[in-house]
Amino acid sequence: MEVGQRNGSSRSTLSQINVTPLVDVMLVLLIIFMVTAPMLEQGVEVNLPEVSDSPGLTAGKEPLVVTVERNGAISIGKTSIPGPDKLMPVLRQVLETRQEKEVFLQADRDVPYGRVVQVMAAIKGAGIQKLGMVSQPPESDKRR
After folding, report:
1. What pLDDT does residue 46 have?
2. Which of 51, 11, 21 is nearest to 132 (CA)?
3. Labelling 72: which of 17, 50, 104, 120 has CA 20 to 30 A away?
4. Residue 90 in contact with residue 76, Cβ under 8 Å?
């Protein structure tokens, strides 16, 4: 007599688990993850400093700071730049002599977001790999 076959009064049950649906679900999930994983890697890499416990810059090197003023004027240190389109060639020239390819962006809080994004795109277009955003601690942290 075989398993699962009925014989008058005695019944026997099949005591094996059917794993086919489990394998099907796992394969579908694997395919979904394989398709969506490359899409998750898109975006702009920006290294933002911590606001409250930031140790600051190291003393040995002078940072390259790009400043966007309230009126939208752009400058590198004390040098004024006419616009974001002129920033890229100036940055490339300045970075030729520097070993570290990092820039700090300091923008006024009242500058329109679009202007800041234009400056960030120009910085990235100049070949900068590390972009830090300069901020100040909240008023409550300044009193300590």
Report:
1. 43
2. 51
3. 50
4. yes
